[in-house]
Amino acid sequence: MSSNTLPAASLGPTDAAAAERAGQLREQLHHHAHRYYVLDDPELPDAAYDEMFAQLQALEAAHPDLQVSDSPTRRVGGAPLAQFASVRHAVPMLSIRTETDTEASGAHAFDARVRRELGLQPDDAAVQYVAELKFDGLAINLRYENGSLVQAATRGDGEMGEDVTQNIRTIGQIPLRLQAQQPPPVLEVRGEVYMRRDDFEALNERQRLKIAQGARGEKTFVNPRNAAAGAVRQLDPAIAAQRPLSFFAYGLGQVVLAPGEAAPSSHEGWLRLLKGWGLPVADQTRLAVGADELVDFHRQIGQQRDALPFDIDGVVYKVNSLALQQQLGFVTREPRWAVAHKYPAQEQLTEVLAIDVQVGRTGKLTPVAKLAPVFVGGVTVTHATLHNEDEARRKDVRLGDTVIVRRAGDVIPEVVAVLPERRKEGEPFVMPARCPVCGSAAVREVGEADHRCSGGLFCPAQRKQAILHYAQRRAVEIEGLGDKLVEQMVDAGLIRHLPDLYRLGLSALLGLERMAEKSAGNLLAAIEQSKTTTLARFVYGLGIRHVGEATAKELARHFGQLDDLMSASEDQLMQVSDIGPVVAASLRTFFDQAHNREVVEQLRALGVHWPEMQAASRSGLALSGKTLVITGTLPSLSRDQAKELIESAGGKVAGSVSQKTDYLVAGAEAGSKLLKAQTLGVTVLDEPQLLGLIHGTT
Ligand code: IVH
Predict the structure, then answer these.
(1) What is the pLDDT of residues 335-344, one digit of tens each?
(2) Cα(139) to centroid of ligand 1, in Å?
(3) Is 275 one of the annotated active-site residues of the chain?
(4) pLDDT exceeding 90 applies to what percent of the chain?
(5) In the chain, what is the straight-line distance between the N-terminal and C-terminal CA atoms, in Å?
(6) Which end of the chain is more exposed for a tag (fewer CB within 10 A), N or C?
(7) How many Å apart are CA 337 and CA 320, to the nearest integer?
(8) Global confidence as pTM
(9) Residue 576 CB partners (closer than 8 Å, separation 6+)
(10) Residues contacting ligand 1 via CB (< 6 Å)
(11) 70 Cα distance to chain centroid
């Protein structure tokens, strides 16, 4: 048993029992924390752990003399520090040589150097290495004395670091006590504190929320490494405890063994021992024999890199034999027996040359930062999307700014952050009030993140989309006019706006690729045929935002005439069933654009027509203003027939029963809806009663 169990003899009788119980609880809590944090394989439900934890806390509160520094209860807490104490490392924390050649040759160069230094001949056996990940975090030295964590320090300048023990204690993956029968008197474990990507995203999400709620002094973090470093160097351990950190062990500092105790003779042996004592060692760690296996490792990890749950910036190769490590020794402050072999950086600095606004096929306006070309994540990046106005403002990217650009894997490049200290003078970004392509108003609807060009079918950026939409089967329908053809016609300048469709001649079409006389003739005939349509199809075909097929039908039925629809106010539009403020506003914006009205006029002038009807008088019908719900199987009508009948009588059919339901039409095997209607006191009709109501016979 480890040193922190007090000898019972020095305590009174009840205290002896308490001491024993506290010891047991600590043992169990250490064990379960390891299962939970390191092995990801808990044996206990969280509540049971919490219960044991609370028992130990209570015991320690009642018997302050039972408190020990490596108790699980000491992970959190402690008062904020004014500053960190300095720590002299017993063994300096050295850095490692970096192989900047990111190609396979980097591994060969290292192996060749090692062999040369060891005086090996070409036909001598291959050198054995341990290949590890190069974690992108913060190096930490953990000092265990007789198995208990007594101190954790940052690397600092390699000689002197900072004492961050109370923050490091909050990391669940770091054992407060080694799981060893006979722990060495002194064991310093070196490794990397890091933050997982998902933990980082969640942390930033919480930070954004705090900022949105007006919290002062809060900020979001640029990347997991900065977030991890910030947490470790946090003077208030309560705050550090809220930052989700993780740890991997990869090496040793000072080691003092008990007399006669045997120790591993290889790096790999030590890693296995550390793992057995409860320290997390990365699963990807491998033995590699000779340069070729190092190259394989570098390539394999490179392929997995983006799928790892944490950031790495390379791999590390270490000579496995400790005897050979000693023989190789150090040059200046770097060991000759280890090297870091990098991958191409996924983040780089560059300058914002402009912020352009692009208009997509659907009219969405997207601010895009034009960047001084920079090589990042293996490609040259010249642009990065800023997504929308809020994103651009949140990151506060300005013309001339120096920014961090990130590109990982196949993910599109993004601006991660601005370096404010390098800002020249740029103004905050504002979304232009007009579409940069066609000059129509740029509209941002309530609750939406995106601005959109209201130019619709007039806007050249949306031209192809607008024509395809108009020509589709459910709209005005021009048979045979598909996306390839529209693409060609627009690119060849045959069509600029929708009305140009009706101005096409045979000779123009014959100029297109793979367009024979017969197909050109067919297309012209289809275009001619499309001139005879319905108001609903025409309105739908205009591609007005939020106006789908059903809404277009409803509008056509309500107004009967296009001119009445075009001149209706938002209030009048909202009287149409199912039309709310968003759709009404969208219709108004569309018809308020002079060029949209112009397009409509031209189409009519070119012969597009439909039977104009009397506006439906919806008020005098049998079910006007009534909402009905249908349930169960009706004796003669299908669901659709019943629905149609109700709608033609001016009623509305809803999917579920509520206070607003006027009638429930119930057939055989009506279930929960019938029950609900009865509870709410809604009138229930059978099919004959419904028909009677519609035909005015009841
Ligand atoms: S070994 C004497 N192994 O990279 C060898 N370092 O300069 C000491 N790092 O800041 C380092 N992953 O924090 C080693 N698997 C790994 C590592 C690793 C990340 C960091 C370390 C240090 C830098 C090396």
Answers:
(1) 999 999 988 8
(2) 7
(3) no
(4) 62
(5) 91
(6) N
(7) 9
(8) 0.63
(9) 554, 555, 558, 559
(10) 94-96, 132-135, 139, 192, 250-251, 316, 335, 338, 340
(11) 38
